[in-house]
Amino acid sequence: MSRSLREDFGVLRHRDFRILLGDRLLAPLGFAFSLVGASFAVLDVTGSTADLSYVLAAQLAPSLVFMLFGGVAADRFRPQSVIIAANVLVALGEGVFGLLVLLHAANLPLMMVLEVCTGTGISLFWPASTALLPKIVPSDELQSANALSRLVMNGASMGGAAVAGVTVAAVGPGWALSVCGLAMLGTVPLLTSLQAQANIRPQDAPGVWHELREGWHEFRSLRWVWATVLEYLVINACWYGGLYVLGPAIARQHLGGPAAWGWLNAAFSVGLIVGGAAALRRMPKRPMLAVAGLPAAFGLSCLAIGELWPMWALLAVWAFAGVCNEFLVVSWNVSLARFVRPDRLARVSAYDGLGSTLAMPVGALAAGPLSAHLGAPHTELIAFIVTTVAVLATLALKDVWTMRLGDAPDWSTVEPEKVATYALARD
Questions:
Q1: Phi/psi at 282 (5° precision)
Q2: Is 35 helix (H, G, I), strand (E, B) or coil?
Q3: To the nearest 10°, the Cα dihedral for 108, 109, 115, 116?
Q4: H or E segment at 140?
Q5: Residue 61 phi/psi, 5° resolution?
Q6: What is the mean pLDDT of each successive set of 10 residues along the chain, which is 427 residues long?
Q7: How many other C-beta atoms lie within 10 A of the C-beta of residue 73?
Q8: Selection from 240, 259, 253, 234 nearest residue 380 by Cα
Q9: CA neighbours within 13 Å on the CB side: how many for 8?
Q10: Residues whose CB falls within 8 Å of the CB of residue 336, separated by 6 or more in sequence, listed in order
């Protein structure tokens, strides 16, 4: 479905959306400094890829506990309030981490504790972020709103990654982590000014556990949702272990250090911008084919860095992976917003986030020891093979081929008392 330029940018007339773009410029810009700074801080302090895997696993672990409750909170309260709490936790974790590095007081246990704090913030952020956008723009503008907001985010990530790599190389990772903490605190005034309201809840609204069960029913009622989440359960473990654990170590040993790692992340962000521009102009009628098939590029990225392809080829592959990533993310977000009940969207996003990240700590913990035993090239080859198998298995499912955006309900025309009946009829 192609769109006109007026349709693409008309969403900017909404005040809250313009404010949200400011937040989605500042937060990713700051967090890009963490992506480079945290990895090289660990490598500088301990010199061990195994220790790096422990620290990154510590960042991921909170999602196993807090992701679902973050979804309940975002369906109960104003989503921007949940995001404020999340960003403050990230600022605390990364800011203190940076201060300890600058004072030469960082050690492995402290770094793991601080990344647990950061990871808690990240796990609260994702479901609330998914729930916020449909509250500030109409449903027929979700495609352009998703694409434009992610273009801003990815532009910030691209610039941030490149500058962060140079910063770490020039003055060290402690300053990069400190920049991340300050930037995340800077988002609080923007988010506070948003006017999006919480979902209307009856006085006798059910408790947390009942709401989690409701979210689970909505999640499992859409087969294309849980099948794709299972695919990403496998792919994200390979992606995280292969690139975010082994990638910085390979860059340090063979590619020139943190500046090279920053440029690779910047190339990925360039791809994200190109993919976002493509998603802004066109959305596939069968979006799940893109969501299920495009992650093959992630496996290719693992293979390329493991085999030490020339730097220009690595940059090209990472940029291509960014294009694929952004197009599939926009397709996925629009699909969820169109097919999932609005009052359960955050909880479904929480189950999505939990399932997609559940095995990432396993990938992080396995990458270091596997690399030590098999070598980085063989470990990256395994990640490529497993990713490819997961993609092919998901593409073989009928529901991935038959799900069409044109079949989505218009929730604004469904009477509230009939919403639950409509949802049950889909199962």
A1: -150, 140
A2: helix
A3: 150
A4: none
A5: -55, -40
A6: 58 87 89 86 84 84 77 79 92 94 92 93 84 80 80 80 83 91 92 79 66 82 87 90 85 83 84 82 81 91 91 93 88 83 79 80 82 87 94 90 75 49 41
A7: 24
A8: 240
A9: 16
A10: 130, 225, 345, 348, 349, 352
Which pair of tokens denotes residue 83?
A: 């995001």
What values do phi and psi take at 264, rounded to 5?
A: -65, -45
Give the single-character DSSP code of 340.
S
CA distance 65 to 72: 12
- Report the C-alpha gap between 337 and 143 in whole angstroms: 10
* Residue 374: CB atoms within 10 Å: 13
Closest CA to 234 of 178, 296, 180, 279: 296
What are the tokens at 183? Answer: 């930037």
Give the Cα separation of 65 and 120 in Å (integer): 9
Taking CA atoms, 20 is separated from 13, 103, 108, 205, in Å, by 12, 35, 36, 30
Question: What DSSP string describes 164-204?
Answer: HHHHHHHH-HHHHHHHHHHHHHHTHHHHHT--PPPPP--TT
Token pair in block for residue 252: 């340090």
Residue 74 burial (10 A CB sphere; 0-12, 13-18, 19+): buried
Residue 289, token pair as written in the block? 């084919």
pLDDT of residue 7: 59
- The reported pTM is 0.68
* Residue 396 · residue 388 · CB < 8 Å: no
Query: Is the separation of the CB atoms in 136 and 196 below 8 Å?
Result: yes
Which amino acid belongs to residue 89?
Answer: L
What is the rounded distance in angstroms from the CA atom of residue 312 to the CA atom of residue 320? 12
CB 147 within 8 A of CB 61: no
Structure tokens at 75: 């369906």
CA dist., res. 346 & res. 131, Å (int): 5
The SS3 of residue 106 is coil
Q: Which residues are paired to 2 by β-bridges?
A: 282
